[in-house]
Amino acid sequence: MPQTFSKFIPIAAPIPTTCVDYVHPWTDSCLQAICGLYLYCMLESLRIYGTVYMVTLLMKGKIPRKEDLRKTICGIVQSTAFLSGTGFGYSLFLCSLRRVLGNFNILTVSAIPAFLSSVFSILIERPSRRTMLCLYVSNVATETLWNMARARHLVRDIRYGDAAIYSASIAMLLYYFKKGYHKSSEHSDAMYRVIRFVVGPYEEYGSSDRSQEASRAFYRQVQNSPNDSSQSGSGTSTSTSTASGTSPWRSRKHKNSVLDLVNQMLRAYKRLIYKIKCCDRHSTCPHPFSCLYYVMQGAGKMFSVGLGLQVFLKLILNSKRILSSPANLKQVLFKKQTLNLAVFLGAFSGIFRGTMCTLRNLTGKDRASHAIPAGILAGIAYLRYPDTTVALYVMWKAAQISYNLGIEKGLLPKVPGFVEFLYCFSTAILFHAAILEPTNLRPSYWKFLHSISGGRIACMSRQPLEVWGLNTTESLKKVLEQTKTVPVVYF
């Protein structure tokens, strides 16, 4: 589509249209349009946040107390007021600015009303949630800006560019994790818990005592049963079963040949694991057992987690299809794509651990700086499960944590309200793209705007905006076809 502005209409020139023709062509009343959008946003926001907060409450795994219920209800009400306030303010400022200025221009058709509505709505939301919301909209806005620049031929896609962003960002976070910056409650972040789960606790700052205790426990078990490696780690249960007059499971003769075969396979597996655990380990390595076992254990664990998650999600998302015809189960699960997440997580953990052990063996020291090359190499696994959303989220999370550390060390100034400003600016970009060039917007975000507005975002007339040469009407048609949404006002 043409990406140059009309030669006859300057970019800052006003367009001669009314809010009835552009903002709410389904009604002649500004008040009715504003109230209708607000009521629908409120109901949809209540549904969204009611589900989110209740699922969060149930995931705690305990019977909620009165205080927990009170906080949950207050959170639902507050978040609902925040999101519905954005829709209310957007419609209000669209009509109000047109009445004050007497016309629309390229900034007031969406960007400025979205920014102003976000200023008021974000102040309603809890401060603890503002950073998370800011990271999300900044993530989507970054991708949108790139798409807008690419559509204007200002930039071009770089092969493996998202993988490079992910690798550099995750390497920075791994360095902070290894350095122990997250030990301070001021800089604790949920991202560090994810990193600890993926790469293991032994790469964390100050984990040497824990690994030494695990090593001592293992070798004490080896000394107690030196003649039979298969008894390592189970001496207590064996002695207990012997004292009680029952023979241990290892020496029990099974009449069933299948059970006997399984028993022998378990014994062989246990001996193999024992031998791997007893391989070489460098003195500077913080983990117990051998480096080979450390790498294999991390890769195997994360591969299993990734495979379990992928299978679970496929079963949930295709539940109707499977229930209608159980024969579809094979088509849903037995695909190469099912292994992508598992390979990504397993390879990431294995490569990172293996690189860290190699660097410790080469340098003779366990340095936090080793996490940078190890993280970059581990980031190669991203190519197996590429996701721009994940790459941009990790990038913004690394930027946020780096900024906080810079403030703590006195290297960067603390800007009051920066998170709120970035949220409002990013939201303005997204609403601007949704109106003028929706093909550059992430499809999932378009669906969200369509849902939360009751279809009104698609019913706003794009015909008056064609003066800027962005082919806005055609762009809207393409998005409606791609996302399977319709220009119908609900409620």
UniProtKB/TrEMBL annotation:
Q: Where are the transmembrane segments?
A: 37-59, 71-92, 104-124
State the InterPro entries in the record: Tmem135 (IPR026749), TMEM135_N (IPR031926)
Keywords on record: Membrane, Transmembrane, Transmembrane helix
Q: Which domain of life is it from?
A: Eukaryota
Quick check: keyword Cytoplasm in the entry?
no
Question: What is the recorded membrane topology of this protein?
Answer: Multi-pass membrane protein
- Cross-referenced PANTHER family: TRANSMEMBRANE PROTEIN 135 (PTHR12459:SF15), TRANSMEMBRANE PROTEIN 135-RELATED (PTHR12459)
Its recorded name reads: Transmembrane protein 135 N-terminal domain-containing protein
| Species the sequence originates in | Callosobruchus maculatus
